[in-house]
Amino acid sequence: MPTQAWSPSSWREKPIAQDVIYEDKAHLEKVLTKLRRLPPLVSPVEIDRLRVQLADVAAGKAFLLQGGDCAELFDDCSQDPIEHKLSLILLMSLIILHGSRLPVVRIARIAGQYAKPRSKPTEMIDQQVPDGPVGADGIQKTKTEKKEVLSFRGDNVNGYEADDRAPDPERLLGAYFHSTATLNYIRTLLLSGFANLDKPLDWSFSHVRSPDIQKAFAAVIESLQDSLDFMKVATGGVRGGERGGTETVDLFTSHEALLLEYEEAFTRAFTTDRPASFSPSPSRLSTPALSRSNSHVRGVAETNTTYPHSPVRPPKSPKLSDSFHGLSMSINDLEKEATPKYYNTSAHFIWIGDRTRQLDGAHVEYFRGIQNPIGIKVGPSMEPEEIARILDIVNPDRIPGKVTLIGRYGADKVERFLPAHIDAVKKTDHPVVWQCDAMHGNTKSSKSDPNLKTRHFIDVVTEITKSMEIHKQKGTILGGVHLELTGEVNDEGFSVTECIGGSMELEDKDLSFNYRTHCDPRLNYEQSLDVAFLLADYLKSKRRGEEPRDILLAGLRGRTARQ
Predict the structure, then answer these.
(1) Which residue has the higher pLDDT, 47 or 544?
(2) Which residues are in coiled coils (predicted)?
(3) Strand pairing partners for 483?
């Protein structure tokens, strides 16, 4: 059967999961109208560059590191939190690069990861209420009662406080402006030499309290510095900065695309591959534009010879002479010029979550029409044949680098489900990036405080190492990891304490010391570097044809047995 015509709004005809209900529809539409007029956050050039790099990951020529907060908060849009996140991802990529000798593709969960799916639309909270009249001493006694409130869905939907749970359309604007400010500062840092490998000791790792990790990182820095010094001498002092070699790096943004109204507002049409018969830079359109009422295309864009992706702009009023000027063009040329490609310009990379990947659902419908590289969460609830079907829908042209399958099984389930999923994809001709999300399948409750969610470091690294071995047995490639992590510290400089284990040897009783997350627990600074060293050791061994030494697994307490 022919595929139904796609447009940025065709998802509205499909059933939608994890929908947000706004009481004031007029207010929502006013906000969306404003968003549609605001500039893009990222460009098609950057998006296409990421897709090319992910094609290298799929072929085993690069490694993908994706990480960041479970859910960003507007309050995190500040200098120190952004620098800590960026520094951590850069440090991890440096360690992985050192071990693997592979380019590292860096994607951050940042500048847009404000929404979170929830298992239930409401939750029960403890609330203090008056208990009787005010006493003679003027003190009001209170008691604790359970109250049902809407679940916290992220800063771009509602507030964390119980009395601020009503979805507010203005928060969508807040998400845009906080994303813009975050992305602007990231670009500023990278263009100012924040990732300059000529001075790697300027990269702070003062928060690392494990002497073993400090020693290992220092060894990486020393080895890299020796290599860079040799390059300078061998090339006469050329550092390669003019090619983006040692002075700056690519860092791409990503988020889970939950709120499709927001994503639609930033889905913009761009034209590419202009016919050669067009003049270089006409002052106005050569042919009359299509009627807005009869086409999703707003108009044929003017030729732009300096930018490979030109936004489709509203047409100017054509003169009669303009119509005759363009009669020599073929119909195929007209169709080629008038047919845009749609890019989601809110981020370079977006993904479909485990709760929103229904084949006939709104999210899959939206994702199938955009040019961005996309991710699809894959877990125990997904049947093997379902993977092939969703790949056919979102990537019918089999474009390399287009789709990343993000496995989120859990350490105790990955051996049961991943092999069948790999086999299902191998039966197709779909080129995919395999990525391990070792976080979402390993969430547990704290033993000392059941209200706190935590993750055990040993579970995280076990799922990663098991996934690597399974792919090795199947003759496929685990191309990367997807982690919830943070470089955040408190006022005293201590890392967060949300996951158990790792180089800090955190125990369950330590969680309350600096537990800061509003959603899921994250690896802290030290634990994230632990993962990076583990990956570097594995990839180094693979490169040399040796067995991994599992130094970290064997050397730190709590890693050889489950906590």
Answers:
(1) 47
(2) none
(3) 67
Radius of gyration over alpha carbons of the chain, in Å?
A: 26
| Statement: the pTM of the whole predicted model exceeds 0.90 | no
Give per-residue pLDDT as tens, 71-98: 999 999 999 999 999 999 998 998 899 8
**Binding-site residue set for Mn(2+):** 70, 440, 484, 520
DSSP string, 32-95: HHHHHHSPPSS-HHHHHHHHHHHHHHHTTSSEEEEEE-SS--GGG-SHHHHHHHHHHHHHHHHH
Helices 525-544 and 79-100, packing angle to 10 deg: 20
Taking residues 247-268, what's their average pLDDT? 94
CA 531 to chain centre: 18
The residue among 11, 40, 112 whose CA lies nearest residue 71 is: 112
Kindly write down the DSSP assignment for every residue of 188-210, as one continuous string.
HHHHTTTT-TTSGGGS--TT---
440-472 tens-digit pLDDT:
999 999 999 998 999 999 999 999 999 999 999
In a 13 Å sphere around the CA of 103, the CA atoms on its Cβ side amount to 20
User: What mean pLDDT comes out for the span 187-210?
Assistant: 70
Instruction: List all residues 6 or more positions away from 480 whose beta carbon is below 8 Å from its beta carbon.
Output: 57, 63, 64, 65, 66, 105, 404, 433, 434, 435, 436
CB 42 within 8 A of CB 370: no
Considering only CA atoms, which of 387, 341, 395, 300 is closest in space to residue 3? Answer: 395
Among the listed residues 473, 523, 504, the one whose alpha carbon sits nearest the alpha carbon of residue 69: 523
Distances (CA, A) of 197 to 98, 222, 239, 459: 12, 12, 10, 33
C-alpha distances (whole Å) from 260 to each of 122, 345, 465 are: 21, 13, 35
Task: State the Cα angle at 342 between 341 and 343, rounded to 5°.
Answer: 125
Binding positions are 70, 109, 377, 408, 440, 484, 520
Mean local confidence (pLDDT), 302-315:
49
Chain mean pLDDT for the chain: 84
DSSP string computed for 263-326: HHHTEEEEE-S--TTS-SS-SS-SSPPPPGGG-S---PPPP-SS-SSEEP-PPPPPPHHHHHHT
Tokens of 295: 């086409």
Q: How confident is the model at residue 307 (pLDDT cuts 50, 70, 90)?
A: very low
Residue whose token pair is 């030290």: 526
- Give per-residue pLDDT as tens, 143-164: 888 889 999 999 999 999 989 9
Q: Which residues are annotated as a binding site for phosphoenolpyruvate?
A: 109, 377, 408
Q: Taking the CA of residue 515 as centre, how many other CA atoms within 13 Å lie in the half-sphere pointing to its CB?
A: 22
Q: For the ranges 22-36, 98-112, 304-318, 433-447, which has the lowest average pLDDT? A: 304-318
Q: Strand 252-256 relative to strand 349-352: parallel, antiparallel, unpaired?
A: parallel
Task: For the chain, give the percent of residues with pLDDT over 90.
Answer: 62
Between vectors from CA 460 to CA 96 and to CA 464, what angle results, nearest 5°?
55
Interatomic CA distance for residues 555 and 563, integer angstroms = 15
